[in-house]
Amino acid sequence: MDDVATKIIDILKKHMKEPRDDISLETNLEELEIESLDLAMIVFDIEDTFGIEIPYNANEEVEDFKTVGTVVERVRGLLAESGASSSGAAA
Amino acid sequence: MTQSDNRRVVVTGMGAVTPIGIGVEAFWQALMGGVSAVGEIESFDTSELYIKIACEVKDFDPRAHLKSKLLLLADRYSQFAAVAAQEAMDQAGLAPPLPNPGRAASIIGSGAGGLVTLENGYRDIFIHNKKATNPLTLLRFIGSSAAAHVGIEYGITGPTFGTVSACSTATHAIGLLRDLIRRGAVDYGVAGASEAVITFGTMRAWQAMRVLSPEGCFPFAKRRNGTVLGEGAGVLVLEDLAHARARGASVLAELKGFAMTSDAKDMVNPDVEGPKEAMRLALADAGLAPDDIDYLNAHGTATTINDINETRAIRDVFGRAADRLAISSTKSMHGHLLGAGGAVEAVASIMAIREGVVPPTIGFDEPGEGCDLDYTPNEPARRAVRHAMSNSFAFGGLNAVLVFGPAPEE
């Protein structure tokens, strides 16, 4: 796993009541018992960490937020678009 | 007039400042015409936002409505409240000097108070490095400002305060005044709420919660994808029936039921039990059966979860009567007025009784999953409305419900 994935998993763990060590790219966010407000907090944390903006809407089923891997892909895509480095603005 | 036995509380005045019309008549005509106020925000630069829409009260010129210099210096939220209160008091035939002002109340809440003032103050201090803020900053932003201003305008010397319960603020204010009148603590008063929070900072905060739609407010519809912020104020004049009759006031409706509950579970995700219990208790308080309600003005925020939950709660409370109940969310037109929502929605509910027409839920393509009631899609529906219920469910799980009926017969 690269830096982006590691950082995102760290962020997920930070927002879990009982952080798990078995989170992989295949893990479903649902399995992590992440609820809507948690997800908003996590997205905010990711935005802050990587200096990007993710236009995510909690009212829509978003494929990008199904598994840890899809979140990582989405963030990589946004980082590439913004030309920011994966080390991020506020990392 | 302090006998509290069998006191009936009636509405003798209504006022509204809404994104689809200033004044009850303009508001009602817009509801009947299915007018939407959703549009690109015009009051500040939205280039850094990805949610760029809201329902703003456009062309609001306080000078055109208000004479008092004190109010012209107040926050936008207090000005909205003052304009709505003035309309309601005019309709009720009440002007200063009021009769027995110590037996009158001013209960006007706000979810957030004067945020326009607060944001400008912070900008001056933190960005422009100004040495001082406007000396009125504090008086403008405190959440009791509107209640105090209206009280001063009319010389109301009885209970005067604001309520704070996010999107149930107005409904709590109206219900509390009803209770004060019913138990004989006061004879009449103004109650409602005001909200004016369409600012860059607030939009940022809401945007971060990921509950706003980038397109529009489509309650109960399949296409719904979040709510749209609105602003404005609603105020009712409530009065002991005997007091209203003694001074020859015309009675618009009766406030028959009120109840409040709390989910005590989650700050964002609403529960079914809390709203159910609030509706059930409001019906019991009104002495009515589910069958007696013809129109329900839903909280209907157009978020995925509210609309499913509210539908389930209505089904549970109304049982078979749910299928003959006309429901609508007028938020589809005026947006989510947050703290003030319950007041303008109470006005819509009273007007539905008086006019025999149910306002529509506009932008309704097809029913959303789990939304299987009659939401009065897209067109107003003419029907006799004997009683109307108005639901307000707030962040934090704070539920408040009002039930209105027709003016009691002489």
Report on this structure.
The complex is a heterodimer of chains A (91) and B (410). Chain A is mainly alpha-helical and 91 residues long. Chain A has a single domain (3-82), classed as Orthogonal Bundle (Non-ribosomal Peptide Synthetase Peptidyl Carrier Protein, Chain A), CATH 1.10.1200. Helices cover 46% and strands 0% of the residues of chain A. Chain A has helices at residues 3-14, 36-50, 68-82. In chain A, 19% of the residues are buried. Residues 85-91 of chain A have low confidence and may be disordered. Chain B has 410 residues and is of the alpha/beta class. Chain B has two domains: 10-246, Thiolase/Chalcone synthase (Peroxisomal Thiolase, Chain A, domain 1); 254-405, Thiolase/Chalcone synthase (Peroxisomal Thiolase, Chain A, domain 1, 3-Layer(aba) Sandwich). The A-B interface holds A 35-37, 39-40, 43-44, 53, 55-60 and B 50, 208-214, 224-226, 267-269, 303-305.
Q: Spell the H/E element sequence of chain B.
A: EEHEEHHHEHHHEHEHEHEHEHEHHEEEE
Given the structure, what is the number of helices of chain A? 3
Average pLDDT score of chain A: 85
pLDDT averaged residue by residue of chain B: 97
Total number of distinct structural domains of chain B: 2
Examine the coordinates and then state which fold CATH places here, giving the name of the CATH topology of the largest domain in chain B: Peroxisomal Thiolase, Chain A, domain 1
The portion of residues forming beta strands of chain A comes to: under 5%
CATH architecture of the largest domain in chain B: 3-Layer(aba) Sandwich
Q: What is the total tally of β strands of chain A?
A: 0
Backbone structural class of chain A? mainly alpha
Q: CATH superfamily membership of chain A, which one? A: ACP-like
Total beta strand runs of chain B = 15
